[in-house]
Design brief:
11 strands, 17 helices, two-stranded antiparallel sheet, alpha/beta, 438 residues
């Protein structure tokens, strides 16, 4: 007997820029090709999902998955301000039709980190005008494609900007402490390693900090500003609320087109735990990561919850990962129990349907992935048994792909990709996840 009901969504997730390839009008594509880039390598063809989506969706369906969370790329839809590309709308229509033909429920994200380059040139995600520009884009998409959708996530990990700001501050503090202790050798590398594992996105902290001065000059040439405000820039408190306003404006625009569409947002959450003396700091972190957003999202139709690991605090702040703990390639502690804890804490505040829109691990050994999925989904089933309305579980990610600044080195996927031929190779974890939907 399956651990989930027949209508439970079991799927996998991708983001357009990470899988499609050749997203040439986006801010990320621009940054990847700069001289003083923080990216290990450019995305280029990525895994060519733009051209191979039919093959990929069929692989999901054949394995038994019944849902696919993917994003529509704003930089493709509106490559120049006010100019919308009908050919790109037609492309995403075909993707949605392919999902339907294969019995796959699409869960569509309208913004997954990447933005049109022109938006960043105009002030990006610290510019109040972005609120209405994003709403206009959202309305255009649902006017054209809304009839193919049921679930829409407006913005992916809306809290990522604050997390980036926090990790940058933590990196600088650790660097300062090492320098004061005279530990200058490998100080930058050590600080980067100990901080990167605390944020749920692929970053190269050391490269970012070392290149900062040179990047500023190149940014002026490329974007017209020294510090372009991309979606994952370290965000100000004002910019943080601007993202919430953009979500609300987009939701309003979507509902005006079709009120039956289910609209939510996704947040990146850690299972924040406190040891003795760390209670106050843990509460502060939970407020910053989640609680202060509640008033902006409490009227949504569902909440997209994204979790990968835990964070533990004591009287001295965030604790190092426990000695001997197993780590992923991203330097996260492997801790699948975190998902259940996050669902319970989020539902206590929101009292609305929850969809796990991302959860996964980057490892070479696929048996560890299967074990992680089994334990994480056991936690989801426990929540459902206790009456929490969890609508679905989307594993991150469908395929090994472009993990932002870290390039193609991180293997999160249920499907491996030989990029020399863009050949797909299903891992046992794909069929294991599919078995949970049967």
């Amino acid at each position: 007997m399956s651990k989930f009901a027949q209508d439970f969504l079991v799927g996998a997730a991708t983001a357009a820029h990470q899988v499609e390839g050749n997203n040439t009008n986006s801010d990320y594509w621009t940054m990847e090709h700069m001289t003083y880039t923080s990216f290990t390598e450019p995305s280029m063809d990525a895994v060519d999902h733009y051209n191979r989506y039919e093959e990929d969706i069929k692989m999901m369906a054949e394995a038994g998955l019944n849902a696919y969370r993917f994003s529509i790329e704003w930089a493709r839809i509106e490559p120049k301000k006010g100019e919308f590309d009908e050919n790109e709308i037609e492309h995403y229509r075909k993707v949605l039709e392919c999902c339907k033909a294969n019995g796959i429920e699409p869960v569509v994200t309208l913004l997954h980190f990447t933005s049109p380059k022109w938006l960043i040139e105009e002030g990006g995600w610290e510019n109040e005008a972005t609120v209405e520009l994003f709403a206009r884009y959202a309305k255009y998409v649902v006017e054209k494609l809304g009839s193919y959708m049921h679930y829409i996530c407006t913005i992916n990990e809306a809290n990522m900007g604050l997390q980036i700001a926090a990790i940058s501050a933590r990196y600088k503090a650790q660097m300062m402490a090492r320098m004061q202790q005279g530990a200058t050798e490998n100080a930058s590398e050590d600080a980067a390693k100990s901080t990167e594992g605390t944020v749920q996105v692929g970053l190269n902290m050391q490269k970012m900090m070392e290149n900062m001065q040179k990047q500023a000059q190149e940014n002026m040439e490329v974007f017209g500003v020294a510090t372009p405000q991309i979606f994952v820039s370290g965000r100000t408190p004002e910019g943080d609320i601007l993202v919430m306003k953009a979500h609300q404006a987009a939701k309003k625009a979507i509902k005006e087109v079709d009120d039956s569409l289910q609209v939510g947002i996704t947040l990146s959450l850690h299972d924040i735990q406190a040891k003795e003396g760390g209670e106050e700091q843990a509460a502060k972190e939970w407020d910053e990561e989640f609680l202060h957003y509640v008033s902006y999202i409490k009227e949504d139709d569902f909440f997209g919850l994204q979790n990968y690991t835990r964070s533990v605090y004591d009287a001295n702040g965030i604790c190092p990962i426990p000695e001997g703990a197993e780590l992923t390639q991203m330097d996260y502690e492997i801790y699948p129990q975190a998902l259940e804890a996050c669902i319970r804490k989020a539902y206590k505040e929101l009292q609305m349907p929850i969809m796990v829109t991302e959860n996964g691990i980057a490892v070479d050994d696929d048996t560890k992935r299967v074990d992680f999925i089994e334990k994480a989904t056991d936690g989801v089933a426990n929540c459902i048994a206790d009456g929490i309305p969890v609508k679905g579980y989307m594993y991150w990610s469908l395929m090994d792909n472009f993990e932002w600044q870290k390039g193609f080195s991180m293997t999160f996927g249920l499907i491996a990709v030989d990029r020399s031929e863009q050949k797909r190779i299903a891992k046992p974890s794909l069929n294991y996840l599919g078995s949970l939907a049967k």
